[in-house]
Amino acid sequence: MSDFSERQEVSAPPADTGIFVPRPASVKVADLQELLELKNMYVRKYDLSGIRDTTLRVVFQVDEYFGRDSMRILNRSVLGDVYARWDSSYLSGLKFQFVPKSDSTALLFCDLEDRGGRGTLLKFRRAAPDFKIYNSYEPKPFKSSGLKPGNMVPVMLFGSFWYDAELSKHFGGEPAYRFAWRTKWRRICQ
Fold first, then answer.
1. How does pLDDT run across 93-102, given as a tens digit for each residue?
2. I need a labelling partner for 32 at 20 to 30 A (CA). Which of 56, 86, 97, 114 fits?
3. What is the pTM of this model?
4. Which residue, among 92, 85, 79, has the nearest Cα to 50 in the 3D structure?
5. What is residue 86's DSSP assignment?
């Protein structure tokens, strides 16, 4: 019987035996992103290096929708101008980080490269019918049709699922949850 407290080395069969020997491969960024997303952690980064408009500014705004026509602003902060007059530089990047803190809260952080950022704590709502499950969120990037001074251009949407009592009837009363975009959002997100 061997002692498992010591590290056991495993040797591969000799290459001339005709047995396939897998070799370790390097881990790519996509592998790490996949690992984070398994834990419902998301990082999204945007390249702003092509924007050369001195009138644009970045605003961190988190809106929460409660159904078809109900919405409230959870957080609104002006992060800064795209162009910095003090050193004649332009923004080069924008990054979002979404990190669950518990089963009912998550931190959403927006970072402007080299200029700071803002965060907000999001509270999840319990999903009916048993109210034991909390909504989860998933990011969807918006497809921008271009930036225009004076217009708000959203870059990220975090959608959540909800309990659908009508759909549950079709499954013999088993709880059914839906995750769908409103037609207006679906067109923007594609």
1. 888 898 988 8
2. 114
3. 0.66
4. 92
5. T
Q: Which residues contact 145 (CB under 8 A, 6 or more apart)?
A: none
Cα 144 to Cα 146: distance, rounded to the nearest angstrom? 5
Under 8 Å CB-to-CB from 78, ≥6 apart: which residues?
57, 58, 59, 60
Strand partners, 56: none
Nearest C-alpha neighbor of 163 from the set 128, 138, 189, 123? 128
Which has the closest alpha carbon to 124: 94, 152, 162, 97?
A: 162
CB 158 within 8 A of CB 98: yes
One-letter amino acid identity for 161? F
Q: How many CB atoms lie within 10 A of CB 108?
A: 22
Please state, in angstroms and rounded to a whole number, the distance separating the CA atoms of residues 64 and 52.
31
Name the nearest CA neighbour of 162 among 178, 180, 148, 151.
178
The model's pLDDT over 41-67, given as tens digits with 9 standing for 90+, comes to 888 888 888 888 888 888 888 877 765
- The DSSP 8-state label assigned to residue 154 in this structure reads -
Cβ count within 10 A of residue 187: 10
Q: How many CB atoms within 10 Å of residue 92? A: 14
